[in-house]
Amino acid sequence: MFGLMVRFTCKDETAAAAFDDLVARTGEQIRANEPGTVIYTVHRVDGRPLQRIFYELYRDEAAFEAHESQDHVIHFLAERGQYLASTEVDRLDFVSGKGVDVER
After folding, report:
1. CATH no. for residue 76?
2. Separation in Å, CA 91 to CA 2, 25, 58, 78
3. What pTM was computed for the model?
4. Residue 86 lies in a domain
């Protein structure tokens, strides 16, 4: 398994709404076209209305690379910056979990 946790902070409430729309459109394409993307979830942060947390889990690093090469992801990466004040990315090394059939 290969994973990421990303914290995005939007510039303002208008930017957050536009970012959420971009995320929703991108998520539809991820669900429909990426069998190697096991989990791709987006969360609002309670008490921090401009922050979004992405939790992404891929079957392996090759599935992540396939994700990154998709047209909808390339579009997302190109468009997101106009809405964001900051981005923090953590690459995750899987140890254990529940809810996903995981092979190491």
Report:
1. 3.30.70.100
2. 8, 24, 12, 21
3. 0.90
4. yes
**Does residue 54 lie within any of the structural domains?**
yes
Distance CA(3)–CA(44), nearest Å, equals: 19
In the chain, the number of structural domains is 1
The pLDDT of residue 93 is 86
pLDDT tens-digit profile of 50-66?
A: 999 999 999 999 999 99
Taking a C-beta distance cutoff of 8 angstroms, is the pair 42, 1 a contact? no
In a domain, 96, yes or no: no
CA distances from residue 44 to 9, 10, 15, 67, 104 in whole angstroms, order as listed:
10, 11, 14, 23, 31
9 backbone dihedrals φ, ψ, rounded to 5°: -115, 120
pLDDT score at 101? 61
